[in-house]
# Entry
Amino acid sequence: MAEPTPRRHEPRLRPAPLLFEPAEAAGDPEHFFDLESIDDPRELLARATELTQAFRAAADRAVEFQAMAAAQLADPRRFDRLTTADIADRADWTEDYAKKMVEFGRDLLRGADGRDPDPV
# Structure
């Protein structure tokens, strides 16, 4: 699993929108966002690059949400608080990675509302 990379001071990229994949197209292993139908290599490179950037941005954002959720689940003020081992098990992470994600999530939450989510 990739390590989270905080980028608080960098502007968030606005990648090309991911176009809807109809169910019948998604079932075809050769079909991928209609890239196989693009004959012009310049156009193919441009669209494939847009998709790559969009997927990377989506993955980065999803990791941030994972981290915030992990931090919330590990919050000592919660009566149903989870240990980092429990969080690691639920997310299929190692416990060390879960600890890093909890820390990263706390940093994100601290920046989101300006308060310290872990007063202990």
